[in-house]
Amino acid sequence: MKINSLHDLYVMELKDLYDAENRIIKALPKMSEAASSQELRSAFQLHLEQTRRQAERLEQIFEQLDESPKGHKCKGIEGIIDEGEDLMGEDSPAAVCDAGLIGSAQRVEHYEIAAYGTARTFARRLGYEEQARLLNETLQEEGATDKKLTTLAESYINEEARSAK
Ligand code: FE
Ligand code: FE
Questions:
Q1: Domain ranges across the chain
Q2: How far, in Å, from the CA of 13 to the mean position of ligand 1?
Q3: Of the ligands numbered here, which is closest to the C-alpha atom of 135?
């Protein structure tokens, strides 16, 4: 896809996010299964539900733009998920594994926070107020998820990981 304008770049960013969300929808059930902390499992499951709605919001935006959501691979999220899977294959003590899962999940959220922030700001500049609102809704969810993961890590998971053998 040739990118000649801010509008083209905006569509490309949205395609990147759509591919990212679909990869995350596939990864989250595996992460939830790999987690030992019940709260961490619930956090992943809740975010899976949110992520499905986020993908639907993007579909809504593509419809408004009369563009296809397909046709771009998000290499960034692919790489982050790959690294997370390598870590899950390490056969570490349960809490250490949980601490690693949180680290991987937060990398994903930060990628999304950056990308949704950019897309929302482009949408505003292009005058797509409704799309900016939808993108901002997702951006807030990603931020809240990131904070929740920090709270879980700091409240007990990192300490359990530190004392695990
Ligand atoms: Fe997301
Ligand atoms: Fe997310």
A1: 6-163
A2: 13
A3: 1
**pTM here?**
0.96
Dihedral of alpha carbons 24, 25, 26, 27, sign: positive
Quick: pLDDT tens for 24-74.
999 999 999 999 999 999 999 999 999 999 999 999 999 999 999 999 999
What ligand is nearest to the CA atom of residue 108?
2
81-101, pLDDT tens digit by residue? 999 999 988 889 999 999 999
CA of 5 to the centre of ligand 1 (A): 25
Specify the fold of 6-163: Ferritin (1.20.1260)
Terminal-to-terminal C-alpha distance of the chain: 51
Q: Which ligand is nearest the CA of 144, by number?
A: 2
